[in-house]
Amino acid sequence: MSKLVFLDLSRNYFSGNIPRDWTGLQHLEVIDFSNNNVSGEIPSSMCSQLPSLKWLRLSNNNLSGNLESSLQTCRNLSALDLTGNNFSGTIPDCIGENLHTWSYLILKANKFTGNIPHQLCDLSSLQVLDLSQNNISGSIPTCLGGLKQMTAADGWMINLTFSVDLFYPMHIDLNVKGVEYEYIDNIIGLIKKFDLSSNNLSGEIPEEMKNLMALGSLNLSHNHLTGKIQEGIGGLHKLEALDLSSNHLWGLIPSSMTSMTALSKLNLSFNNFSGPIPSANQFPTFDSTSFEGNSRLCGPPLPTLCSSASPNDPAVKAEEDEEDKYGKLWFYASTSLGFIVGYWVVFGSLVIKRSWRHAYFQFLDNMKDKLCFCFWK
C-alpha cells in the first residue's frame, strides 16, 4: 500500500503493540488508532520511517513510556492526541524545539510530571493545548500568553496541509464547555482551546493571558492558583467558556468581564472571591453554581445580599484588600516589636546594670581618644 495516505483503525478492539516497521509508506499522513486496547511504547522508528506523517491520534489506549525518544524524529507533526493513556515523565523539550508546525497538542489524562516546558511557547501554530488531568507542577509560563494562533483574533484556519486532494473526515474529541464533543473536518480549525486543569499548578494567572484574544475556551480549574483575576481579562471577547474553579483566587470579580459577551459557560466556584457579582450583560444568565463556594461573594444569583452594590464603596474596597492589609499590619507589628526588643536588650541592660553602663561609656571614651590621636598624628 505504498500510496496509502490515511490509516484509520479507531474504535475497535485491537490490542498488542504499535508496529515498528513502516517502510514503504512514504505518503502516509494520518494515523488514527484511538479507542482501542493498544499497549507498549510509541516506536521511535514510526516518525523516522514516515516523513509525511502530520496527524497522530493514539488516544484512549494503554500506551506508556517516555515521549522523549519517541518524538525526537517527528519533524512534521501538526497534531498529536495521546489522551487517556499511561505516559509518564516530563513533557519533552523537543516538542517546542523541533516541532514548530504543531497545531494540536493534547496530552490529557496521563501521568506527566514536572513543569510546563517554556519551549511550548515556540509553537507559533498551536491552537489547542490540553495538558489537563496530569501531575504537572510549577507556575504557568508567562510566554504562553504570546502564542500567535491564540492571539490572532482573525486567524482561525486549520494549519494542516495534505499532499493529495482526498476527502477524509478527520475528527478529534474535545471538552470545550464541560461536555465532550467530536469535531470534524474544517470545524476543527475554529477551535482555540487552552486547558491546564486538574494539575498541581501554583502561582498567579499570568497577566499576559489577556493577549489570547482568539481563545474560545480557557480552563485552569482544580489547581493551586492564587492572586486576583486581572482586569485585562475583559479583552477576551471571543471566550465562550471560562473555568477557574477550585483554586485559591481572591478579590473582586472584575467588572470588565461583563464585556465578554460571547461567554456562555462560567465557573468561578470554590475560590475566595469577595464583593458583589457583576450584574450587566450576560452575567444574570449564570446560575448560582457558577459562584458557589465563595463565602464572601454577594448579590444575585446567590442568596446573600450585598450591603452596597457599588464596587467603589469603601467597605467593598476594604474587603477586596483585606489580605493585603493584614499582611502590612503583621509586617509593621513585627518590625515594631523587633525594634523594641532589640532596643531594650541593649540599652535596657545599661539602665539596669550600673557597672555595664560605666564600662560602655568608658569604651566609647577610649575609642574617641584613639580616633583623635590617629587624626592628629
Helix content: 10-25%
Computed CA radius of gyration, to the nearest angstrom: 30 Å
Order of helices and strands: EEEEHEEHEEHEEEEHEEEEEEEEEEEHHH
How is the quaternary structure best described?
single chain
Strand order, largest beta sheet: 1-3-5-7-9-11-15-17-19-21
- Secondary structure class reads alpha/beta
Give the number of DSSP strands: 23
At a glance:
By secondary structure, the chain is of the alpha/beta class.
Which keywords apply here?
377 residues, alpha/beta, ten-stranded parallel sheet, six-stranded parallel sheet, 23 strands
Explain the overall architecture:
- The chain is α/β, with parallel strands linked by helices and 377 residues long.
- Among the domains are: 6-227, Ribonuclease Inhibitor (Leucine-rich repeat, LRR (right-handed beta-alpha superhelix)), CATH 3.80.10.10; 336-376.
- Helices cover 21% and strands 22% of the residues.
- The protein is built from 7 helices and 23 strands.
- The chain has helices spanning 45-49, 67-71, 94-98, 148-151, 314-320, 322-352, 354-376, and strands spanning 6-8, 15-17, 30-32, 37-40, 55-57, 62-65, 79-81, 86-90, 104-106, 111-113, 128-130, 137-138, 171-175, 180-184, 193-195, 200-204, 217-219, 224-227, 241-243, 248-251, 265-267, 272-276, 296-298.
- The strands form 4 sheets. Strands 1-3-5-7-9-11-15-17-19-21 form a 10-stranded parallel beta sheet, with no helix packed on it. Strands 12-16-18-20-22-23 form a 6-stranded parallel beta sheet, covered by helices on one side.
- The longest helix has 31 residues, at 322-352.
- It is extended and about 105 Å long.
- It starts with 5 loop residues before the first strand and ends with a helix.
- Mean pLDDT is 81; it is low at 155-166 and 309-316.
